[in-house]
Amino acid sequence: MNEEKSEILNRLYNLVLDRNIREHERNLLFVAKEGIESGNSVKKEITQLEIALRPLAIRYTLTPLVDAFYDDITSSNLFGLGIGAMRDRKK
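Structure (tokenized):
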């Protein structure tokens, strides 16, 4: 298992177990974690997670920990520039 995959799985695992996230966030995170563990591509699963979380992020309804994770996955090089990186470049 490569380092990036391991780090993402650890973060997903910790978020799933956190008491301060909402149940629908937990379900989305769990599906992504299970997909990665079953052999699906990290990029595919994180892309699907980002798409599922996007409406919540736009409405500012993500819990703080999930919001921080969402910022990380949208501004990482995993998807090229990412939404967050494009937003940061406009500043």
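The radius of gyration is 13 Å. Helices lie at 3-17, 23-37, 42-58, 64-75, 82-89.
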